[in-house]
Design the sequence.
């Protein structure tokens, strides 16, 4: 069982930046190959994939609305995956979740059903 803990959320004005972190328990990212994704869920909307990264960082995925603004990265030695969010917009407001699963191949996974472990989420609020 892997526990994921997100941090870094908060309130920011439009155009600002935040960096979210996802840390895994028991050095999971260091000791095993885990694919990781960031998802978000706004009130009244379904949870959607924002970005994903393969276990070795070799491949990434971004949903169209964040391309050029968000960057996903990881350092397995630090057991952490980050989501750097720049040029934030009010429509980015949501609870952001980190998800992980043991890697299958080297494809960044963008479907909720593909992930086995989820964090509790961190709130990101972008004011206009």
Sequence:
């Amino acid at each position: 069982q892997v526990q994921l803990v997100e941090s870094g959320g908060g309130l920011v004005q439009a155009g600002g930046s935040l960096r979210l972190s996802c840390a895994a328990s028991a050095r999971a990212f260091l000791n095993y190959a885990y694919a990781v994704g960031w998802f978000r869920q706004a009130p009244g909307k379904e949870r959607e994939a924002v970005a994903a990264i393969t276990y070795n960082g070799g491949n990434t995925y971004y949903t169209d609305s964040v391309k050029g603004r968000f960057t996903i990265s990881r350092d397995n030695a630090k057991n952490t995956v980050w989501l750097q969010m720049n040029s934030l917009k009010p429509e980015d407001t949501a609870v952001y979740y980190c998800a992980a699963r043991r890697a299958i191949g080297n494809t960044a996974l963008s479907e909720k059903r593909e992930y086995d472990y989820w964090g509790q989420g961190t709130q990101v609020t972008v004011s206009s």
Q: What stands out?
A: The chain has a mean pLDDT of 96. The chain is about 5% helix and 50% strand. Helices lie at 28-31. Residues 28-31 form the longest helix (4 residues).
